[in-house]
Amino acid sequence: MTLGIRPEDITLVAGDDPAAITAEVSVVEPLGDSSLVYFDLGSTTCTASMSGELSIQSGDRLHVTFPEERIHLFDRESGVAIKHREYTPTAPSNQSINV
Asked: Is 19 within the bounds of a domain?
């Protein structure tokens, strides 16, 4: 199986969180309001989108989680999706969504 997650869905958490994965930052790409933070898990490089107000630098150790409701799972051989992330509709606070 292959796990997929969008960069904005990777969550920064406290080190004592039981679901926390500790990773060392390899590259930080500041984009203004957000920063792309690159870190390695085994032989895979992951990218997280985090607030540009956070002070994160290469070499920092972060604690992150991949929330179960936000992940995608794919069959490694066929590429067929086994699980999609849960969709949560959002709208600007001055608008509503009719469901």
From this structure: yes
